[in-house]
Amino acid sequence: MPRQASTYDLLMAPTAERQGAADLYAQLRGAILAGQLAPGARLPASRVLAASQGVARGTVVAAYEQLIAEGYLQSRVGSGTRVSAVLPDSLLAVARARRGAAVHSPPAAAALSQRGALLARSPFGAFPLPAAGVPFAAHVPALQEFPVRLWATLAARQARALGPSAMADGDAMGHLPLRQAIAEYLGGTRGLACRAEQVLVLSSVQQAVDLAARLLLDAGDAAWCEDPGYAGTQAALRAAGVRVCPVPVDDDGMVVAWAQRHHPRARLACVTPAHQAPLGMSLSLPRRLALLDWARRSGGWILEDDYDSEYRYSGKPLPPLRALQADAPVLYVGCFSKTLFPALRVAYLVLPEALVDGFAAGRSVTSRYPPILDQLVLAAFMREGHYARHLRRMRQLYAERRALLVQLLQHKAAGALELTDHPTGLNLPCWLAPGLDIDTVLQRCQAQGLVVLPLRSGGTGSPTQPRRNGLLLGFASLAAPTLRVASGKLARALDG
Q1: Residue range(s) defining the domain that contains residue 400
Q2: Fewest CB atoms within 10 Å of the CB: 170, 195, 376, 439?
Q3: Quick check: bond before 228 cis, omega within 30?
Q4: Is the pLDDT assigned to residue 17 strictly greater than 60?
Q5: pTM (predicted TM-score)
C-alpha cells in the first residue's frame, strides 16, 4: 500500500517539465486517483502552490477550478480546498456495475401501465416502412419524383428569413399562413368551406385520432372502425382505452345499418369515405347520409379521414361529409405524407367551431405546438402553386403505373387474383382465388424478394358477403421496368 504523502511532499518540489494548468491538473488528478492524496486531504493555497512551482497564480486557480468542476476537489470558505470524499470515478464504477446487473431486473413491460401495454402491443409498427422502389411495398409514394431542389430552395429561403417572432413560442393550432393555405386548398379542391381558425396542424392522422379519443370519448366508450381498415386508427383508439367495434365494408363502403344494429351505443365513427383504406371504394351517398343522420340522432361524432382523396384516376370523388352538411358533427383529417413525402410529419384536422378551443387546449397540453420550419416551407410550397402542380403530375404518373400493373397481372396472374375495380390510391387490392392459402403465398412472395401486405378480411361473413383473403400491392413508387419484373415474380409465387 503506498504511503499517503502530504501535499507538500507531492507539490512543493518544482517540476521543470510542467508548463501550464493542464499539466498541473493532470498531476493532481493522478495523485488523487493513485491514493497519494487521500479523501479529505487539504491542498496548498493557490498563491503558495504558484510560488513553489514557479507558475502564475492563475495557472493554479485554473487547475483547481477544473478539478472542482469534475468533482475531484471541494472548496469551502474557511476550510480551503480539499480532496472530495467520493470521487467521480467511483460513482461511474457503481453506475457501470448497475448497468451490468440489468439482466436481473424485471422486464421493461412489467413497468408499463395498462395503457402503455396497449401501446407496446400495437401491431402498428414503430419502424420505418420499406423504402421507395421496393417491389409492391404499400403506401409508398414516388419519392424519386419529388422536387427536392425546389423544396431545398424554399427551405433555405425560409431559414434565412427566420425572425424572432417565428422563433418564439408558437400557436397550438399551428402557423396561421399554413392553416390559411390548407383552408383555401380544401375549399377549392374538395368543396369544403372552412376558416383557417378551424384548422389544427398536427403531425399525423394518428395524432388526430388520439386527440379525438382523449377529448370526445371516455375509457370504455365504443367507436366504429372499418373492417378491414387503417391499423393506425384502431391502435390509437385502443391505446386510449376505447372499445374498437369492427364494422364490415362492401362495395358501398362501411355498412352503417350493420353497425347500428350490432353496436348501437357507439360514440364515434372512424371512416375513410373518399377512398376506403385499404380497399379503395367510396362510401355511397345513401351511406353518407345515413352516417350523418346517426351522428345527429345519437349525439356521436364522425372522424372523416380523407385518405388518398387526391389520387382518383377516373371520375370525380363524392364530396366530403363535412361538405354535405356544413354544421355536421364531423372532424375532417388529412395529411401530406402520401402527397409529398412521409418524413414530412404534417397533418391537419378541420374542427367544428364548438370544438376549436377544447382541441387547441388539448394539443397544447400534450405536445404544445408543431415545429415551425416545416410549416413555413409547406405554406410557401402551397401558396406559390407548387403543391397543385406536383399533385397533377403525380396523379398522371400513378394512373399510368396502376394501369400497367393491372395489365400485367391480368396477363400473368389470371385465375389466381381477382383485381378490385376501384381506380384510386397508391395500392392495388387483390383477392386470392379460392384454394390459395394466404400464409403460403406470403412466404413465397418473401422468398421472391417482394414486400406484400395481406388483406385478411372483408364483407359481413354472410353467404352473400363472405370474408376473403387477399394482397395489397403498392405500385406508386415502381417504374415500369420494376413493375414488369415484380409482376412476374408475383405470378411465380402464386403458382408455387
Answers
A1: 389-495
A2: 439
A3: yes
A4: no
A5: 0.76
Answer whether residue 126 shows pLDDT above 80: no
Rounded distance, CA 284 to CA 367, Å? Answer: 37
Distance CA 23, CA 27 (A): 6
Q: How many residues does the chain have?
A: 496
| C-alpha cell at position 31 | 495523485
- Cell numbers 387483390 correspond to what residue? 430
Which whole number is the average pLDDT over 334-348?
94
Alpha helices in 342-479 (DSSP H): 356-367, 372-383, 386-412, 438-447
What three-state secondary structure class fits 38?
coil
E-strand spans in 126-232?
199-202, 222-227
Q: Give the residue among 474, 361, 492 at the shortest CA–CA distance from 130.
A: 474
Asked if residue 104 is part of any domain, the answer here is no
Judged against a pLDDT cut of 80, whether residue 3 lies above it is answered with no
pLDDT higher than threshold 80 for residue 55: yes
Is residue 141 in some structural domain?
no
Claim to verify: residue 432 and residue 296 sit in the same structural domain: no
- With a pLDDT cut of 70, the percent of the chain lying above it is 87
Burial group, residue 9, by CB count within 10 angstroms (0-12, 13-18, 19+): exposed
**If 0-12 CB within 10 Å is exposed, 13-18 middle and 19+ buried, where does residue 342 land?**
middle
Contact criterion met (CB below 8 Å) for 333 and 205: yes
Encode burial over 62-99: b for 16+ CB neighbours within 10 A, e otherwise: bbbebbeeeebbbeeeeeebbbbeebeeeeeeeeeeee
- Cell numbers describing residue 108: 421493461
Alpha carbon of residue 20 to chain centroid: 52
Cα(381)–Cα(39) distance, integer angstroms: 64
**Are 333 and 461 members of one domain?**
no
Kindly tell me the sign of the dihedral angle through the C-alpha atoms of 223, 227, 229, 232: positive
Read off the pLDDT of residues 235-287 as tens digits, 9 standing for 90 and up: 899 989 999 999 999 999 999 999 999 999 999 999 999 999 999 999 999 99
**Assigned domain for 137 exists:** no
The set of cell numbers assigned to 259 is: 353497425
Q: Provide the 3-class DSSP secondary structure of residue 78.
A: coil
C-alpha cell at 432: 386470392
Q: What's the chain's average pLDDT?
A: 86
State the pLDDT confidence band at 95, using cuts at 50, 70 and 90.
very low
| Residue 496 to residue 494: CA distance in whole angstroms | 5
Quote the pLDDT of residue 102. Answer: 46
102-106, 189-193, 398-402, 427-431: the lowest-pLDDT one: 102-106
Q: What is the CATH number of the domain that holds 430?
A: 3.90.1150.10
Distance from C-alpha of 221 to C-alpha of 250, rounded to nearest angstrom: 25
